[in-house]
Amino acid sequence: MASSVHHLLFIINLLIIPTTLLSQSIIQMPPRRHRITDDNLYCDSWRFSVETNDAGTWTSIPSRCVAFVQDYMTGDRYLSDSAAVANYSLSFARGFRSEEMVRTLGSSTSMRLCSPICPTIRRMDSGLNSYGHRSVTFDEASFDEWVDLAEAPALPASLKLYKELKHLGFKIFLLTGRSEHQRNATAKNLLYAGYNNWERLLLRGPSDQGTTATVYKSEKRSDLINEGYRIHGSSGDQWSDLLGFAVAQRSFKLPNPMYYIA
Ligand SMILES: *[C@@H]1O[C@H](CO)[C@@H](O)[C@H](O)[C@H]1NC(C)=O
Ligand SMILES: *[C@@H]1O[C@H](CO)[C@@H](O)[C@H](O)[C@H]1NC(C)=O
């Protein structure tokens, strides 16, 4: 019988490892316990927690992990982790039969190509745009100068994935939290880094100001679905790229232990 009170529900998915596996060499148990005070051990656990989003919103790298994160980002590990994620994205993408691709792409040919960028551009043209300022903790002026430089290199794994997806016939939408007034610099930077022929570059227009990244990106995905697209895959270095509503069939989280955008 239905109760009038709400039951608190929390699903715990069990991880069950057969004991036979434990006795096999597949899972190597550590020969001895590391001390929990070991910074590397602590920071690796911290990194795991932020990447899985178990940590939720976090605002700064623990001071004892700054050097760890620097090593991670500048060493082979970051490139390898990114490549692993890109490889899984690609395996998933390759799973679509070619006839399904054609049907999917075919259904998008009668789309309103204007939406959702055109209304934004019209507002810009008529001079009505007023860009709200995001509240960010980093120095926005110098960040904007960096954006204007348009010389950020591509993450090799992402560029490779992009090219392979193009080759497979996917339409690729680039969705960014950058403002519409950074469109030219962003497009220039993408071309400089080796990206080209994207389907659409989606930026935060004046009407998108004041929403969280999760809501903004969900709304943009929702717009695409309303246009008739099916979003097969989504890839991003932030959970706010992937969560919310109108989510992709599969989401692929790239590593980023440097900052968290809610
Ligand atoms: C990714 O795939 C490439 C090509 O198949 C392979 O050479 C590379 O080892 C893979 N990298 C990772 C980290 O899985
Ligand atoms: C962007 O580039 C286009 C074409 O080069 C130009 O017409 C337009 O004024 C530029 N917009 C901004 C905001 O700089």
UniProtKB/TrEMBL annotation:
The UniProt record lists the keyword Transmembrane: yes
Keyword Transport: no
GO function term, MF aspect, one: nutrient reservoir activity
Record's keyword terms, sorted: Glycoprotein, Membrane, Signal, Storage protein, Transmembrane, Transmembrane helix
One Pfam family of this chain: Acid_phosphat_B
Chain ranges passing through the membrane: 6-27
PANTHER family: ACID PHOSPHATASE-LIKE PROTEIN
Similarity comment: Belongs to the APS1/VSP family.
Function (record text): May function as somatic storage protein during early seedling development.
Protein name: Acid phosphatase 1
Biological classification of the source: Eukaryota, Viridiplantae, Streptophyta, Embryophyta, Tracheophyta
